[in-house]
Amino acid sequence: MSEIPLFALPEEHEAIREACAAVCRDKVAPHAAEADRLSEFPQASYDALRAADFHAPHVPEAYDGAGADALATAIVIEEVARVCASSSLIPAVNKLGSMPLILAGTEELKQQYLVPLARGEAMFSYCLSEPEAGSDAASMKTRAVRSGDSWVLNGVKRWITNAGVSEFYTVFAVTDPEAGARGISAFVVEKSDAGVSFGAPEKKLGIKGSPTCEVYLDNVTIPASRLIGNEGEGFKLALRTLDHTRVTIAAQALGIAQGALDHAVAYVRERKQFGQAVADFQGIQFMVADMGMKLEAARQLTYAAAARSERGDSDLTFFGAAAKCFASDVAMEVTTDAVQLLGGYGYVNDYPLERMMRDAKITQIYEGTNQIQRMVMGRKLLQG
Ligand code: CAA
Q1: Which CATH class is domain 235-383?
Q2: What is the set of active-site residues?
């Protein structure tokens, strides 16, 4: 019988995983606990990822990027998250912030903004949510008004990952208040533009090494050429972007869960109680088995979604939502069980398990809550 290659990753993807895992083990993992404890952006991890071209691997080669496909990008994010969830938001949010440009930007705009991103001179964030517009993203209030050859932006964006650290921001704003979701457009805003400022970093449960802030836009005047795609098509562009990047959150969730399972397995093999390794108890074996089984199911779904993202398949909307929803729920279950397997040691920060459990929670919330993912999946399945 001939070999069926369907469920084996191509060799080059396995090679990327190995290379990335080595960088993460040696140069990212050592900073993970401190980034969490101090709530500080892990600059050393960024530098290590940048040196190895893993900071924004998705940028096409035409713009000086590594040209990683969606699956390779997911693998990079997974491996970084396995040791440090905060650091995994470097490649993940660089993709989120720049995806609208990749999907719909002019050649000139791509050259201007993707090249510095690829070279590691700038990071990119994504500004969709607002204090009163979260799940209902189309109800945003931020305004962009055309004035001659410029656009003038005013408003407040909230929950912006890597805000303040990023140089570039894709900002969604209302250009036609009468047109609802069809009256929203996308723009590139720079941190150095006059009128851009940031709120204090949010005090979060997890991913503490990745700053989350409000972004204030106060009469920010930008050239008309910084419109991404067509006027009025920004909301669709926001959702098309999320179709692709929900796969990256699934990959992040996978990595966090894998990291927790790695530690839990090592611990239960070493830990002795009642005269034997706790791994020898069937109750422990069953827990580990369930964790590994769920994780592998999440991995298969995530990679299947990544393949669809790369091909631009029409069922990506369903698969992106399904992968993100499933993998993040698995990450929460697996990290919670990993804490349980370590008992008291899981609950203190001498071990990384409690951090991983805290970090896992956000994957059920951002880039659309898992309730929104179910809404997206339901709509796709039920539409005529
Ligand atoms: N791709 C392209 N177009 C799409 C689309 C998709 N996946 N889904 C819908 N559309 C189109 C629709 O066809 C419709 O087009 P027409 O006007 O031509 O009919 C238009 O977009 C509006 O669609 P809906 O009527 O379905 O829009 P809605 O207002 O009901 O909202 C929603 C849909 C799915 C709930 C959407 O608002 C959503 O995904 N909400 C969650 C927002 C979210 O994920 N936020 C996360 C922010 S990023 C983040 O977390 C920050 C970070 O830094 C990590």
Answers
A1: mainly alpha
A2: 367
